[in-house]
Each structure stands twice: as C-alpha cells, then as structure tokens.
Amino acid sequence: MKPDIIRSFKDKKVLLVGDTILDIYIYGNTIGLSPDAPAPEMEERKSSIFFGGNGLIASHILNLGGRVTFVTILGDDEDAKYYDSWTHPKLKKIFLIDPTRKTTVKRRWYDKNLKLLQVNKVDNHYINSDLEKKIIKLVEANAPHVDVVVIMDPQHGMLSKKLIKNIVAMSKKYKKPLHVDVQVFHRPSNHHLYKGVDTMFLNQKEAKSVYPKFNLQKPEQSLLVIMKKLKLKNVVVKLGGLGSIAIFSDQYIKSRPYKVKAVDVCGAGDAFLAAFSLGDRNRPEESLRIANIWGALSTKIHGTMPPRRKDLVKILKEKNS
Fold first, then answer.
1. Closest by Cα among 276, 214, 215, 220 to 250
2. Which residue, 181, 213, 214, is CA-closest to 197?
3. Which pTM does this prediction carry?
4. Fewest CB within 10 angstroms: 133, 154, 273, 286, which?
5. Are 255 and 285 in contact (CB under 8 A)?
6. Any idea what DSSP says for residue 104?
7. What is the maximum span of the chain, computed from C-alpha positions, in angstroms?
C-alpha cells in the first residue's frame, strides 16, 4: 500500500451533518463504599472533555488533513458554551441553537480505566419545522462546494424524516457521494429513510436490523440483500477485530483487521467512517484498509479523541517497505 493516498486527504472538502455529543470523562480513585449508600465513593483526580458524535467525526477528518463544514444543533444552555473554544483553520462551524432542547452530554466516571458509571443528558425529540428549513437551506448552499457529504445519525433528534429526505435528494442533485452511518442503540433502525444513498456503513448489529439473516458465512450474499433492500450503490460492514467487508463499485472486498491492544473501543466506528470518507473512491480496497487501521489506532486512546496522523503514515510506510 502506498501512503500517497494519505496525501490525497489534504484539503478534501466534507459537508458533515448530524448530532454532536459532548463527552466528559471523569477519572478518580475509589476510596471505599459510601457511608450512606451501597455505592463506591471516589476522589476525583482529573476530567477530560471531548467533542463526540459528529463532533468526533469532524475531529478525525481535521486530524487527517481534510476540511469540514459542520452543521449541527446545540441546546440553549451552559454546556453549549464548551463548543465556543473549538476552532481549527479547516473547520467551518454552523452550529444552530435549539431553545427547546438540552445540549447532548454523556458523562463517564472511571476508577483508572475501569468504568463505574455513565450518565447521559439527552433530549431526543425531533427538531421543529423552522430548524428543518434552516438546515435544508444550509445544506443546499454548501453541498455544491464539497467533495462528499457525511451523516452519522445517532438518532438524537436532529435528523428528522423530512431533513433526511431533502439531504438525500440534494446529494443526488449535486452529484455528491453521501456516506451514511446510523446507530440503533436506543431507537429502532431508520435505515429505510436513507434509501438510495451512495454508501451505507453498518456494524453487525445494524446489518441485522436491516437484514435479520445477515450471515458472515455468506458475506457477499448478505451484502447484496442489504443493497437491494436499501437501493444502495455501495455498502460497508465494519466487523471490529475482524476487519471489514464491502461491496463497492460492484466489487466484493474483504479487508483484514489491523491488530492492536484496545483500551477504549468507543468511537472506533466514527474513526472508520471519517477515514474512509476521505479516501479515494477509485481505490476502495486501500481506503478500507486505511479506515481499518485508523479505527484500530483510535481504540488505543482512552476517550473520544483522534489518533495522530503521523502514526498512520508510519504504519503505511512500514507496510510498503
């Protein structure tokens, strides 16, 4: 594999649309049980704040050299102010305020690297028609000037049925590839709303939500069924430690994993999506391999933050030597 594909990442323009999440990691030492309840008592040592959800995807793209126009919504609250400090010369922030919701925040408590508790502040109602219209206009204005449109839909309410329909239509109107990754943690699959997109990214759970008989013993056949059901041009299934499989440009591709000692797998799928979206569509096999490596590198870091681009380049050079 040649690392020149990494150089092609530079200044590739991405329009990113979707919910952002503030990830707060609180680290401490457990000193025993609380005197007034059967719960651990912890002394806090430090806390770290990361931009998760589509914020994490934006960070990955920026770390890899791409340019991002990021459209998202925040609540009208104190937590939204954390995003004021997020600046980057290749980041265009279009952050709309929704006064009817809370900014999505996920707080995690750890004793060293042992997770003790997670508390989510979420408000999953769908956006109103005024915000829909604003976002549709913003997508219309920015889509003609980018190379690819990316949506990661954690189903926290920003991506309504009407908004999805319009983004899919505009990607076709302006002939821009639309890459979509939908999570099914707390809501049923809504993959059917994204019918006809260029490339759908799924993990095994999501693949089975679309096609319950999805089977790794018959991978190509399973992918073809998903493509037919959702009228996709391309499909990618992330297999974590097993690598990934795809049908891209009518070619079945099986990509081996890059082995690492994982510390925190949270956000690995976002890393994969970001790296592949910057890749060369004419070299999908290499793009998948790079996405596997970048996703694996992200699991070596505790917290939702991107790895270093130079580590990826080093690995690719070693493999090419």
1. 220
2. 181
3. 0.94
4. 133
5. yes
6. P
7. 63
The pair of three-digit structure tokens given for residue 90, joined into one six-digit string: 């290749």
Q: Which two tokens stand for residue 159?
A: 């991506």
Amino acid at residue number 247: I
The CA radius of gyration of the chain, in Å to the nearest whole number, is 20
Cβ distance 157 to 101 under 8 Å? yes
pLDDT tens for 205-261 read 999 999 999 999 999 999 999 999 999 999 999 999 999 999 999 999 999 999 999
How many Cβ atoms are within 10 Å of 314's Cβ, its own excluded?
Answer: 12
Both tokens of 249, joined, read 């440009």
Task: Report in angstroms the alpha-carbon separations of 295 from 238, 240, 306.
Answer: 10, 9, 9
Interhelix angle 309-320/284-298, rounded to 10 degrees, is 130
Could you identify the residue written with the tokens 């020149």?
A: 4
3 state DSSP class of 313: helix
Q: How far apart are CA 232 and CA 181, in angstroms?
A: 13
Contact, 114 vs 95, CB < 8 A?
Answer: no
**Cα separation, 46 vs 44, whole angstroms:** 6
For residues 176, 177, 183, 187, the Cα torsion angle rounded to the nearest 10 degrees is 50
Would you say the C-alpha torsion 33, 37, 42, 43 has a positive or negative sign?
negative
pLDDT in tens, 74-117: 999 999 999 999 999 999 999 999 999 999 999 999 998 789 99
Q: What is the number of residues in the chain?
A: 321
CB 288 within 8 A of CB 253: yes
Query: d(Cα 136, Cα 167) in Å, to the nearest integer?
Result: 7
**Phi-psi label, residue 58: left if phi above 0, alpha if psi -120 to 50, beta otherwise:** alpha
Residue 30 tokens, joined: 């457990």
Query: Mind listing the domains of the chain with CATH numbers?
Result: 10-21+52-103+126-320 (3.40.1190.20)
**CA torsion through residues 70, 120, 184, 163, sign:** negative
Residue 263, SS3?
Answer: coil
